[in-house]
Write a structure and sequence with these properties.
By secondary structure, this protein is an alpha+beta fold. It is built from 6 helices and 9 strands, in the order H-E-E-E-E-E-H-H-E-H-E-E-E-H-H. The relative contact order is 0.16.
């Protein structure tokens, strides 16, 4: 029979192991919302993990198209074990910055063994539990409105078709396009919710590190891509 002190140690160890297993199987929840009504934009992306102890929310309050650049007003909020942080900034994307980002991605991908296979394996573990996308479109002309409606339907169905090849659809997607013949109009509202197990997310990160052909240079390339695009 196990001695009294050791039984407590064993019980504590089992509780810790059970707690870690529960954390690893807990989901990472990603929620996205987007609304556009004329020139008014509202984009929000939320990340939640470890039963809500870790939370991050990115809110884009406005998207301005000025000449050849796109200006974003971003608001980032994070909560980690009771500690909160906030950050606001204005960001601008022009052709030069987009091309620089593409080059950085190519560099990071070149240093990663079979990146596409890793991406497919990771996305296969993602469960898409909600997908809603409704739009209203009008051009002021009946024929062009009908053509725009058909084009928008095509874009939405193609997006869903491609998406279903990579992630698991756990709910029926709700898609709608309404033609507005009386006046020029464009409104769209999109929302989704996806989940992946925290353990799967951690393993995906570890597999990515293993796939780096040159550890030091590869890690630096990915760090530059993620944080200095």
């Amino acid at each position: 029979m196990i001695g009294y002190p050791y039984s407590w140690v064993l019980a504590a160890g089992l509780i810790i192991v059970l707690f870690l297993l529960i954390i690893l199987i807990s989901p990472v929840v990603i929620q996205g919302q987007m609304r556009r009504d004329g020139e008014n934009d509202d984009i929000e992306i939320k990340f939640k993990a470890v039963f809500g102890l870790l939370r991050y929310k990115l809110k884009i309050r406005s998207v301005d198209f000025s000449g050849k650049a796109i200006r974003l007003h971003e608001h980032l909020m994070g909560t980690s074990i009771g500690m909160s942080s906030k950050n606001e900034k204005n960001d601008e994307f022009d052709t030069h910055r987009v091309m620089a980002g593409i080059e950085k991605y190519k560099r990071a991908a070149a240093l990663t063994h079979n990146l596409s296979h890793w991406a497919k394996q990771t996305l296969a573990k993602v469960r898409l539990e909600e997908w809603k996308w409704s739009s209203s479109v009008g051009t002021g002309d009946a024929m062009w409105t009908a053509m725009a409606t058909g084009l928008l339907w095509s874009v939405k169905t193609t997006t869903l078709g491609v998406l279903s090849q990579f992630v698991k659809l756990k709910a029926n997607p709700l898609v709608d396009v309404k033609p507005v013949y009386a006046q020029p109009c464009f409104k769209t509202e999109w929302s989704c919710r996806a989940k992946i197990g925290l353990g799967n997310a951690i393993m995906a990160g570890l597999h990515l590190l293993v796939r780096l052909k040159k550890a030091k240079e590869g890690v630096q390339a990915w760090r530059t891509l993620l944080f200095k695009v």
